[in-house]
Amino acid sequence: MTEETAVAEPPDTLTDNRDLLLGYLDYYRAALLRKLDGMPDDELRTSRLPSGWTPLALLKHLAFVERRWFRWGFAAERVDEIWGDRDPDDGRWHVRPDEAAEEIRRLFLDECARSREIVASADLRDRARSGGGFDSSDHRPALIWILFHMVQEYARHVGQLDIVRELADGVTGE
Question: How much is the pTM?
Fold first, then answer.
């Protein structure tokens, strides 16, 4: 098991909002990787759902979600490929045949690392900067809201991946 997949759920004694939100965000990031561990490449690229998404496309999607919310949205960084997880023709999540699973995993880990840097230098009450994903001065969410949104985004997608993994090879659990 890799370091990224060994994060435990935060303790129930935590009372600090920042520690709780960041603890759960890292917990779900690690859970995502744990659920993908051991899946052969053909299963990572196979959809078992009517919507057509694949486990590898979900990983790529969440890498771009990190990029959109933290780099482009909150920090207002100029970044390439804001919507690189989407097929340009139909808007669905996609992975090109020439993209290796390890390449997408590295993209995900790199985006998570950059998100952590951004969050570490900000206060929970700080609002997203103008000029990135939030152009309007009246619609700039606070970091605490973004973190909570990200926790729910991961919780939903990790739950979906639970089902996909069980359908693929019967593996269940954390």
Answer: 0.94
